[in-house]
Design brief:
Elements (H helix, E strand, L loop, with lengths): L12 E8 L6 E8 L3 H4 L4 E8 L9 E3 L2 H4 L5 E11 L6 E5 L2 H15 L1
Length: 116
């Protein structure tokens, strides 16, 4: 992806990216939620929250993705705002969808609680 393409992702876009793991030296290609805006992309980084299967053990801060078609996801999933990665935008494979407004609002509120 060229530098001019780096700022083409908006907050609450669902993208596919090699998401790093906290507990091991590995990455897994998976969907993730862009939670930063284009201003941060100007620094050459983006913040992403993990998206995981709704079948996994739930965390208290998980946000259900109810509109799977809009999000571009094939199976019931949740955003896990407690798991955030900072990546170079050029690592993003592609945009697959966008989070619906209600879920985006919930994710934003949870992240603000983590910061406050």
């Amino acid at each position: 992806m060229e530098a001019s393409d780096r700022a083409t992702f908006d907050a609450f876009d669902v993208v596919v990216v090699p998401f790093p793991y906290v507990d091991r030296l590995a990455e897994k290609r998976r969907p993730a939620l862009v939670i930063s805006n284009r201003k941060l992309a100007g620094h050459g980084v983006m913040w992403l929250a993990m998206i995981t299967s709704a079948d996994n053990a739930p965390w208290p801060s998980d946000v259900a993705i109810t509109d799977l078609i809009r999000a571009g996801l094939p199976a019931p999933s949740v955003v896990r705002p407690a798991k955030i990665a900072c990546i170079d935008p050029s690592c993003i494979d592609r945009r697959v969808g966008r989070l619906d407004r209600a879920a985006a609002r919930n994710v934003g509120e949870i992240i603000r609680r983590f910061l406050g």
